[in-house]
Amino acid sequence: MRLGPAGEAPLVTSCGRRIEVKFLRLAAATDRPIGRVALDVGPVRSGEPGTWASLTANEARDLADRLISQACVAETIESAGAEDPASTPPRAPSA
Fold first, then answer.
1. Cα–Cα dist 30/73, whole Å
2. Helix, strand or coil, per DSSP, at residue 26
């Protein structure tokens, strides 16, 4: 197992977690190696352990789409001072 060079510094979140995105190349039984995107979420400053995930290219794209979608929701809430849309009950239809 070999991690390819990412060339980017890890993202450090406001809670102190280091997040790295890397290319992971796995040796396969066939002549064709297996490529994955590795997401490494490091430990918190307080010492809570981190975790990691190995994603296919399609899984990585799906995750990216979901992250962007949720970032848009977060920006909307922050800019409008609105409540979380998931916690707001639906409105009754107007008559």
1. 44
2. strand
Structure tokens at 54: 């190995």
Q: What angle do CA 14, 88, 78 make, to 5 degrees?
A: 35
Q: Is residue 2 classed as helix, strand or coil in its secondary structure? A: strand
Residue type, 39: L
23, 37 Cβ separation under 8 angstroms:
yes
3-state secondary structure of 81: coil
Q: Is residue 56 within 8 Å of 67, Cβ to Cβ?
A: no
Residue with tokens 């296919």: 56
Tens-level pLDDT at each residue, the chain (95 residues): 344 455 678 888 888 889 999 998 888 777 778 899 999 999 877 888 889 999 999 999 999 999 999 999 999 988 887 565 565 555 555 54
Residue 36, classed as helix, strand or coil, is strand
Give CA separation, 73 vs 3, 24, 63, 76, in Å.
33, 31, 15, 5
